[in-house]
Amino acid sequence: MSSFGDPSFTLQISSPGIQYPYSYSAIARGWGWLFFRQLALPVITAIKLGFPVPARKRRGRPGTAHLGSAGYQAPPPPCLWDNAPEDLRVDGRGCEDYRCVEVETDVVSNTSGSARVKLGHTDILVGVKAEMGTPKLEKPNEGYLEFFVDCSANATPQFEGRGGDDLGTEIANTLYRIFNNKSSVDLKTLCISPREHCWVLYVDVLLLECGGNLFDAISIAVKAALFNTSIPRVRVLEDEEGSKDIELSDDPYDCIRLSVENVPCIVTLCKIGYRHVVDATLQEEACSLASLLVSVTSKGVVTCMRKVGKGSLDPESIFEMMETGKRVGKVLHASLQSVLHKEESLGPKRQKVGFLG
Length: 357
Description:
By secondary structure, this protein is an alpha+beta fold.
């Protein structure tokens, strides 16, 4: 290695075999310019202008916070939520107000029941198909429901390829948890003969457009589709030899209708700042770090609860959100039930009916 007095020397770092040639004259010029820029230039400028040299402040990247003597200073809350203390949102709604919900039943001809729900810019289509199957071993005298959720690529670019598979599985699992309750749907009415035959309801959910608050819209559409479902009445005939024969009624009015009075709906409450809102838009969901999904019946009974998001919720907030979910859920059920009965009374002249939750 050359000495520092040589015209050039080699600076060797910790990794052996890697050497970087530097010119000591270049290094001297660099240190000289740094000294002039950091110390001499401010002093000369201050002397010319006639004011004392201010202390140099440490500057960081825009939008970052530093840990100083005052501790961590969080960035200011987004302007989207500036009106929260007045219970006023950007679109004029209150914290517990839903957007207009449009419900239309019997929209798909080749299904046992169907419904389409539009909630803001969220568009959901649900079809129910009744098929014969074999009861499960653990529940030999009951039928069951199967859920499938398809996230259309037209709904949002995020669903292209396999982007919507994870969300579809998450929604299907949530629906299984909600309907894994004896009080939601009377599954014994779906049994034809114990341990042999039963009705299996395949509930297909199609996401046509995503504009926020997916879980609430899907639960409303599923309840409306189940309300519209008609299952043919079946008679089991047994001959002298003991063999059984199944006979389906040809009369389209001779059918079984499911009771959806106890079918719950999901109320999603998004925590934004110190407040929580229902029926959040995409912009409000982007401002929320944690949400609580509350499954509520028409009587205000919570059957299932699930937290989503990376943020945390303290026990006091969870209790307040549950109470809000029960209160809002009862109003939502009453409005939906009124719309469904109105749709049924229209008969073949069904049309889109809107209501505010």
